[in-house]
Amino acid sequence: xxxxxxxxxxxxxxxxxxxxxxxxxxxxxxxxxxxxxxxxxxxxxxxxxxxxxxxxxxxxxxxxxxxxxxxxxxxxxxxxxxxxxxxxxxxxxxxxxxxxxxxxxxxxxxxxxxxxxxxxxxxxxxxxxxxxxxxxxxxxxxxxxxxxxxxxxxxxxxxxxxxxxxxxxxxxxxxxxxxxxxxxxxxxxxxxxxxxxxxxxxxxxxxxxxxxxxxxxxxxxxxxxxxxxxxxxxxxxxxxxxxxxxxxxxxxxxxxxxxxxxxxxxxxxxxxxxxxxxxxxxxxxxxxxxxxxxxxxxxxxxxxxxxxxxxxxxxxxxxxxxxxxxxxxxxxxxxxxxxxxxxxxxxxxxxxxxxxxxxxxxxxxxxxxxxxxxxxxxxxxxxxxxxxxxxxxxxxxxxxxxxxxxxxxxxxxxxxxxxxxxxxxxxxxxxxxxxxxxxxxxxxxxxxxxxxxxxxxxxxxxxxxxxxxxxxxxxxxxxxxxxxxxxxxxxxxxxxxxxxxxxxxxxxxxxxxxxxxxxxxxxxxxxxx
Length: 529
Hints:
Strand order of the largest sheet: 1-4
Helix content: over 70%
Distance between the termini: 20 Å
Structural class: mainly alpha
Radius of gyration: 31 Å
Shape: globular
Number of strands: 4
Strand content: under 5%
């Protein structure tokens, strides 16, 4: 990003110099006193420079490129739905659920020998043995292999409770085993949602993938305890395979309470993450405003010096400064990793202390900071009209640069839209046959007729892009390999759109292969740094 030309901010952040926190110039102690001849302490001057540099950094972040990327967010969300569907249909979530029961049984009972059965995994095994269309359909539809209404189950078999099991008692042990299944999948879902929330601005696709997976799984998971809340007292009292009915029976806790607590866990986590982020953003903006006030001279060095002299953390700052002096004055070899690590630790500690000092100054100048905050632009909000206009402009620029590539890419997108529209309209016609069936049916046929041609053009676009990437001398091996892989899977998808009877299996191969290629490409770039 270009430098921001504003008074006092023309230079980039200086490198770390001996005995100073990052961003503080080595000649800070030699700078002249302010015009009113008030002598400024070393710590106060360093604090001023630190805040100034922090202001520069925050300005870069604030006015830098928008971190939230709507297309990548949408792609991540769609991929999240797909990944969660694969996890559920393939029986992977159910397997973890049942293992939660099994491992808890082993932890509480002697000679435990749990047996786990999962429909999704059996469906996959059957498909691998006989890769027929029927078996593939069973995999994709999460077929109930044993027609028992359950996606899987765990057979409990053990001799008797161990020491821990005896402490919990029979009721407590059975309650723990019952709850362990849902908790085994719910805890990772909540963790994934939290991780996605934390990285969604820097890595929108991955962040929204994790958030979507966590949210969808939580919704699915919550339906289980909610179903117990609608059971009658007689149904709960009767032994069954329902985990939360068993939990209510063993603990006496109403399933309504369990359902409410379980269901609200993710909304509560989301609210906590959101308000914590907003609190941090407010801190950042307050410090940004403080840095501007200092650079504009509205908060003088004399005020900074007076605040530092009376600051309760002054001794801590002085101690850290002295340690930095001692560290740099001690014999050391340039490039010594241990030395650099120690310096890094001290710089981080000094940074935290100067941040606290910044908060002290903010507290003393609340009105000024509040007024300056009004001059800080809010993030650009989503505007549908401007988004359409920007998209059209981007398409025009892409077309001017590469007409063939733009047309073929558009065809690929059109194939996806047409396929989705065709399936959706057919489903709508089946669900609500009285709602203009002729119009809906015609729309489905028109959309469906576009799919093969657009699909072929879309695949041609991927192949064209692969050729350009291979011919680009600046492209890395990872980029070239991924471009070829994407072209291959696009070709498979186009074949599925054109060949009757093979659409579903080839579409699955195309989607999974494309997502896998993109994931492998991202991981490879991440490993390379």
